[in-house]
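Subgroup meeting minutes
Present: P.N., E.W., G.H.
Scribe: E.W.

1. P.N. recapped why we're keeping a running log of single-chain structure predictions: easier to compare across weeks, and new members can see raw inputs and outputs side by side.
2. G.H. added today's entry (77 aa).
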Amino acid sequence: MKEFIEFTIKRLVDKPEKVFVEEAPSDDHTVEFRVEVDAGDVGKVIGKKGKNVNAMRTILAALGAKDGKRATLHVIE
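Output recorded in log:
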């Protein structure tokens, strides 16, 4: 899942070299992904009305459910 997030976000932003994705398991059933991007790229990751980030969260939820886990996504500048 981490590779999917990184691949997707790097194609949305102007500065892909500043994209950093960290996977942090918080317990047996939850995986948290923290995404750091350049301050100028946060809006591109989130998208209009949050559509980009919501789409990624939906896909992650589906992928996580397939493995019996809950996946969360946090975007940090």
